[in-house]
Amino acid sequence: MPRPADSSDLERLGGDLRQEMSATATGLRQEMSATATGLRQEMSAMGADLRQEMSEVGTGLRQEMRAMGEQVRAELRQEIQATSEQVRTDLRQEIHSMGEQVRTELRQEIRESAAETRLQMEQFESRILARVDASAAETRRYMGVVAEDLRSDIKAVAEGLGALDEKVERFRGEVREDFGKVDRRLLHLEVRVIGRSGPA
To answer: Is the pTM of this model over 0.70?
Structure first.
């Protein structure tokens, strides 16, 4: 029966694996460095050759392009002069046709926009009128409440004034009665004074 692995065996196994992985990584780095160096040398040599070939090809192409450019310029001048009148005529016709089409489309868009604007204005007017009606109704309700309060206040004031008039009238009656009593007393007093002041 095999002996179960303990922690020391696992540590030795881990150390061995780390050593093998480190050695493998070192070898891979060396191989990659050598391969990269070789590739750089090959690419440098190929780049020099390509630059030389491209320089030679570029010189030849420049010469050919100059010759072709002169020829193309001459041919283009001839074709442009030959087709300029036809192009002008075609452009005039196309511009005229496009102008008519654009005017027609603009008229249609203006009519549609005007109709949409009218619809929006009608909707806006309806909303404004609804708000005005609601505000007027609210104002009428408020003024009705205020008027009812004023009526109550005016009625209370009128009742108070009526009661005050009644009190004033009673006060006047009492004053007239008191003055009448005073007048009668003064009259009696005057009669007594006159009677006493007569011949003895």
So the answer is: no
